[in-house]
Amino acid sequence: MGSVAFLSASEPPKPWVETPLIYSAPLSNAAGCNIYLKLENVQPSGSFKSRGIGNMMLRSTLSSPSGDEESPSKHHFFCSSAGNAGLACATTAHTLACPATIVVPTSAREPILRRLRGLGATVVVHGNSWFEADTHLREVVMPASAIADGNDGETVKQVYVPPFDHEDIWAGAATLMDEVAEQMKSVHRAYVDAVVCNVGGGGLLNGIMEGVWGPSRNPGSGKTGMGKEVGGGKEPRVLAIETVGADSFYQSVKAGELVTMKAITSIAASLGAVQVSKKTWEWRQQVGGDNLVSATVTDAEAAVASCRFADEHRMLVEVSCGATLATAYNGDLKKYLGKGLSEEEWKNVNVVMVVCGGSHVSVDVLAQYREVYGPQVAWA
After folding, report:
1. Where in the numbering of this chain does the Tryptophan synthase beta chain-like PALP domain appear (predicted)?
2. Which of 55, 190, 277, 330 sees the fewest Cβ atoms within 10 Å?
3. Predicted TM-score of the model (pTM)
4. What is the pLDDT of residues 118-132, one digit of tens each?
5. In the chain, at which residue ranges do the beta strands (DSSP E only) sit?
6. How many whole angstroms separate alpha carbon 352 and alpha carbon 40?
7. What's the rounded Cα separation, in Å, for the pair 1 and 117?
């Protein structure tokens, strides 16, 4: 791996970037309200994961006291993922000039493996599922690597990087709302009435909820979340979208308790957490169903939304992201966020949709979606 020159040895580069927030005329026309797109698809790794995983990894490198002789001289990052989390880990490790090992299941696609290796990560293929890959990472790969890392005389800190369930990951994702607040104020001169995102394990949703409702990340400021500032005196509502068959949060809401799904049957692999994080469920309990709304779309709707978005915006996003966009295309957005509003009132509602990006997409994949799912969707 090549070395990276930092401006200061004590200030490594931030592994994520501020992303654009743009008004979308096509989606606004389809939804009947004002749609703004937060373009997380342009993050260094290709998805919003750069924020949360990048923040966690960056904080781990800064956690040792300066000048402490016991501090590790090197960090080695470990992640189990065949998609966006693995790419975010490998991309961040490359940025921080640290080694990364990614364990992927046998279902991992060759383009993802090439990208991981191209970023300098060590890739281990093991198991038929994420669970088996993760178990192998923790029980076999990390212990063996600890022995190997110690052979060169350096003190190495091993860092396990989870896909979504860590407070530093949520804090990193929350920076998205800080940017939205500033961009809506300074660029668009508008308030936000609602934010729409997808939810898999809950890392992105937890960050958005922290950004809207949580304590300020500026100690001593006396502020809570950015919600009332960005919402013009009230917190924006949050709509969390899943695909049917990867809807552990929606199933939990229906059951009134945290549910573990028996299997994931959706094509939206990035949403395929059999149980949403406990923190996500706590947010629902804390703010209530009117403020954190849970809903689903079908695989066909999500896939066709990705195709239509590519046609209208010239951007490729995976089907998990298409699930978010589908609510604007299929007319359901007003049902979830504009109940009781007249058409004229709904026209003035401002909604931010998080375009989370994703690695599981290509021109060929979208062509297949169009052929298979297009006939099933009226608005295709």
Report:
1. 18-357
2. 190
3. 0.90
4. 999 999 999 888 888
5. 21-23, 34-39, 74-80, 100-104, 122-125, 156-160, 194-198, 237-243, 292-297, 350-355
6. 12
7. 11
